[in-house]
Design brief:
single chain; 355 residues; mainly beta; 14-stranded antiparallel barrel; 4 helices; 16 strands; disordered N terminus
């Protein structure tokens, strides 16, 4: 006798994420016989860093995000047009380590952020303790999950939507190599503010609208973000490092329809070879929102997955202090509300000067 088990979409998403998180726990349970600190924890006194200009091509597909091709929409469930752009990128980091070999000031994008696929710009301080723990406190002037601009009213139909500024910043506290172990812990707090937020106003003003002023309040987008993340670094010798991690993000928005809990697993790897260097990651997450969106009359649920892959070649053409590099990043947000579906991809190539 066969038994058929049917799962709804949310249960299926939860099962997918739970299986992925369970796989991360199994990887982290592997014996770690040769743990070593990553290349980002070099405390040699004096100045060091890198400058890496790159040329990038980006692909995006979304009707909720700001772009020229989605300025005007006629339906909230229409298919999005894909958009491709070419643009320059400048990655850099400047580090100064005091003569004590334990205190370090830095600004820019640390290499470990690139390995994790976050490309964060940070300004901070690191302190190496006698027990092996490395403490970091940093200010992040721009959150990577947010665009610089947003639509004043993303639900405006039949005419051009207007853009408005979206400001964000965050602060990070991190403990790496805790007591000399492979464990890392991270906490982050971020804030987003949308200028002139008019989400839902157009539909509210329609003669046959059933929306209320309370519904408009539910759509407000100003938010606080709290991140808690744990990672475990595993060394396989020859510099090969695998770093599984799990994270939880609480998005606490003014409008409950935009408040969420997100659970995510990520596995990063790095191989710093003598000439060729490789890095990458794969992630899978589930975001569950607090209350139903009054426009779609449905509570939003997101399945978020993505990957980053990169490679570098040291001393191209015999240039001693340079590294040629290429990376590609892909992210997909698959939601139960078509309006919020999005796909983005970027590929970039450049040359880094190390000093």
């Amino acid at each position: 006798m066969k038994i058929a088990l049917k799962l709804d979409d949310l249960t299926r998403r939860r099962v997918q994420v739970l299986i992925f998180l369970f796989g991360i726990v199994l990887i982290a349970a592997l014996p770690d016989k040769a743990f070593t600190q990553g290349p980002g924890n070099n405390f040699t006194s004096g100045f060091s860093g890198y400058v890496q200009p790159m040329i990038a091509a980006g692909y995006s597909k979304s009707i909720s995000d700001v772009s020229d091709d989605t300025k005007k929409i006629d339906s909230l469930d229409q298919d999005a047009n894909s958009e491709t752009d070419f643009f320059p990128i400048l990655l850099w980091e400047m580090v100064y380590t005091l003569d004590n070999g334990a205190t370090q000031f830095y600004a820019g994008t640390p290499k470990e952020n690139i390995v994790e696929g976050t490309f964060l710009l940070e300004i901070g301080i690191r302190q190496k303790l006698s027990g092996g723990t490395i403490l970091t406190a940093a200010w992040i002037p721009k959150l990577p999950i947010l665009e610089k601009e947003a639509w004043k009213d993303p639900f405006l139909l039949g005419t051009d939507r207007q853009e408005t500024d979206q400001d964000s910043q965050a602060f990070k506290l991190e403990a790496e190599s805790i007591f000399g172990s492979p464990f890392n812990l991270r906490y982050g707090f971020g804030r987003q503010e949308v200028d002139d937020d008019q989400a839902g106003v157009y539909l509210f003003e329609q003669p046959d609208s059933t929306l209320t002023t309370a519904d408009l309040q539910m759509l407000k987008r100003d938010s606080d973000f709290h991140l808690v993340e744990a990672q475990y670094a595993i060394s396989f010798g020859r510099g090969i490092m695998i770093r599984p991690g799990i994270s939880y993000v609480r998005g606490d928005a003014v409008g409950n329809a935009n408040s969420f809990n997100r659970y995510q697993g990520k596995i990063s790897f790095a191989y710093p070879g003598e000439r060729w260097r490789f890095f990458g990651n794969i992630s899978l997450g589930l975001a569950e929102y607090d209350e139903a969106n009054p426009i779609f009359e449905k509570t939003r649920e997101d399945l978020i997955y993505g990957t980053t892959l990169g490679a570098g070649y040291a001393a191209p053409f015999g240039w001693k202090d340079f590294t040629a590099s290429v990376f590609t990043s892909f992210k997909k947000n698959d939601t139960n509300i078509k309006f919020y579906d999005s796909t983005s991809m970027i590929i970039a190539i450049g040359l880094a000067w190390l000093f």
